[in-house]
C-alpha cells in the first residue's frame, strides 16, 4: 500500500478522501482563530506523503547555462535570511459541493473548509534564484517550475509553476518555507520544504519540494496543464480542451459563513454571524455584506485583523455581525465580500458552474430557524 506510511491525522477533520488524504477543518472552527492550528489546517494531497530524511535532503535549483545549485536543509536555513509571511492558502475546489447541487462535477466534495491561514517562515524564493545566478528580469515569458518528492506509480512527480515575474518580485513574498506557525512543517504540509505562493491558488504551493527550474514554458505537470482551469458552463467532458484555458493563478474574491451552520436552530434575541473573506493577488477585503433575508436587505459586517500593506493582503479577514432575531422566523443568511478592486462575488452558482467545480465563489447561503 503506497499510502501505508502516511502520517497520523487529527480525528476532528472532515475527511473527503483517505487515499490520497484530503480533509478540511470543521467549518464552525474556521473563524475562531486568525491562524489555523497546524493539525486543523486543510490538507490536500494528490499522491502518497513521502518520508524524507532531513539530513540527506537536497533541493536542486537549475541555473542558467545548465548549472545546478544543490542546497541542504541546513544550507537553506543558514545561507539565506529568514523571512516570515502570514498567508491564506485556498484550494481551487473550495465550496465545490455547492456546484454539485447545480449539476454533477468531478472532484472531491469540499465544503467551505478548503482554506486556512498560517504564519510561514523560510527563505525567499527570490533570494535563492538570485544566488543561483538568475537575473532580476528575463525578456519574454518565463516560468519558475516546481517539482515535489511525491510521485505517482510511474515516477512522475507532482508539479506546478508560476510566472517568473512573481517569483522574483520582492513584493510577492514567495517563500521556500520550512516553518509553519513557528514550528517545522508537518509531514502533511510539506516537510521539510515547500513553496508558499501568497495570493495564488494553493495548487501552485508545491509541497515536499525537490526541484526548482526556470523555463520558457509552464510546468509540463498534469496538474498545471490538464487540471485547475476554469471553463464555461457550456463545456462538458466531451468538448473540453484544456489547452484553451489558462492555468488558475490568482483566485477571485471569496467569503463564507462559518457560524451558524446550515439547518441550525438558534435562540431568539441576539444572533452573531461569523465568517471569513479573502481575495487573491494581495487584494484587501474592504467590505463584507450580510443579509438575513436571502439578499433583499443588507447589513455591513465588522472586519477583524490588521491592515496589510497595499497589494500584500495575503491573509483572510475574519468578520462578524450581531443582529436581533425573533422566535418563529426562518432566516436565509447570505454573505458577499468586496475587495480593494471592487470585485464582488456573483449572486448564484449556475452562471459560474464548470465541469471541475473550481472557482466556486457565489454568495454563501445558510438557512437557519429561530426557536425558543
What can you tell me about this protein's structure?
There is one protein chain. By secondary structure, the chain is mainly beta. Helix content is 8%, strand content 34%. The chain has helices at residues 73-79, 96-100, 125-131, 164-168, 222-225, and strands at 14-17, 22-24, 43-44, 58-62, 68-72, 82-90, 115-124, 143-151, 157-163, 175-180, 183-184, 194-196, 209-215, 254-259, 265-266, 269-278, 285-291, 299-300, 302-304, 317-325, 330-339, 364-370. Strands 5-4-13-8-9 form a 5-stranded mixed β-sheet. Strands 6, 7, 10, 11 and 12 form a 5-stranded antiparallel β-sheet that branches. Strand 8 (143-151) and strand 9 (157-163) form a beta hairpin.
Strand residues, percent:
25-35%
What's the SSE pattern?
A: EEEEEHEHEHEEHEEEEHEEEEEEEEE
Main beta-sheet annotation:
5 strands, mixed
- From the alpha carbons, calculate the radius of gyration and give it in angstroms: 21 Å
Uncertain stretches: none
Overall mean pLDDT stands at 97
Count of β-strands? 22
Annotation field: number of helices: 5
Structural class: mainly beta
Strand arrangement in the largest pleated sheet: 5-4-13-8-9
End-to-end gap: 52 Å
Proportion in helices: under 10%
Characterize the overall form. globular
Amino acid at each position: 500500500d503506497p499510502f501505508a506510511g502516511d502520517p497520523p491525522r487529527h480525528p476532528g477533520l472532515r475527511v473527503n478522501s483517505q487515499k490520497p488524504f484530503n480533509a478540511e477543518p470543521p467549518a464552525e472552527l474556521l473563524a475562531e482563530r486568525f491562524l489555523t492550528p497546524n493539525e486543523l489546517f486543510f490538507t490536500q494531497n494528490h499522491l502518497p506523503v513521502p518520508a524524507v530524511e532531513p539530513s540527506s535532503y537536497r533541493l536542486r535549483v537549475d541555473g542558467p547555462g545548465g548549472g545546478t545549485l544543490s542546497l541542504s536543509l541546513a544550507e537553506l536555513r543558514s545561507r539565506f535570511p529568514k523571512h516570515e509571511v502570514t498567508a491564506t492558502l485556498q484550494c481551487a475546489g473550495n465550496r465545490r459541493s455547492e456546484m454539485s447541487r447545480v449539476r454533477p462535477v468531478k472532484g472531491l466534495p469540499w465544503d467551505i473548509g478548503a482554506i486556512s491561514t498560517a504564519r510561514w517562515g523560510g527563505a525567499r524564493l527570490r533570494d535563492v534564484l538570485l544566488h543561483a545566478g538568475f537575473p532580476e528580469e528575463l525578456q519574454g515569458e518565463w516560468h519558475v517550475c516546481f517539482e515535489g518528492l511525491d510521485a505517482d506509480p510511474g515516477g512522475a512527480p507532482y508539479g506546478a509553476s508560476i510566472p517568473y515575474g512573481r517569483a522574483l518580485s520582492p513584493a510577492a513574498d514567495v517563500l521556500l518555507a520550512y516553518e509553519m506557525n513557528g514550528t517545522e512543517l508537518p509531514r502533511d504540509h510539506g516537510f521539510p520544504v515547500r513553496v508558499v505562493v501568497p495570493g495564488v491558488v494553493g495548487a501552485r504551493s508545491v509541497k515536499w519540494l525537490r526541484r526548482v527550474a526556470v523555463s520558457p514554458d509552464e510546468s509540463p505537470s498534469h496538474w498545471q496543464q490538464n487540471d485547475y482551469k476554469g471553463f464555461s458552463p457550456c463545456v462538458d467532458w466531451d468538448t473540453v480542451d484544456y489547452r484553451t484555458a489558462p492555468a488558475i493563478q490568482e483566485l477571485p474574491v471569496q467569503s463564507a459563513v462559518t457560524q451558524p451552520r446550515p439547518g441550525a436552530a438558534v435562540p431568539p434575541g441576539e444572533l452573531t454571524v461569523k465568517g471569513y473573506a479573502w481575495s487573491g493577488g494581495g487584494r484587501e477585503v474592504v467590505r463584507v455584506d450580510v443579509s438575513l433575508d436571502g439578499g433583499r436587505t443588507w447589513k455591513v459586517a465588522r472586519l477583524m485583523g490588521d491592515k496589510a500593506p497595499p497589494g500584500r493582503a495575503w491573509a483572510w479577514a475574519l468578520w462578524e455581525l450581531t443582529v436581533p432575531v425573533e422566535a418563529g422566523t426562518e432566516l436565509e443568511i447570505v454573505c458577499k465580500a468586496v475587495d480593494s478592486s471592487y470585485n464582488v462575488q456573483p449572486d448564484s452558482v449556475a452562471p459560474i458552474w464548470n465541469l471541475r467545480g473550481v472557482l466556486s465563489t457565489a454568495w454563501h447561503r445558510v438557512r437557519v430557524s429561530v426557536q425558543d
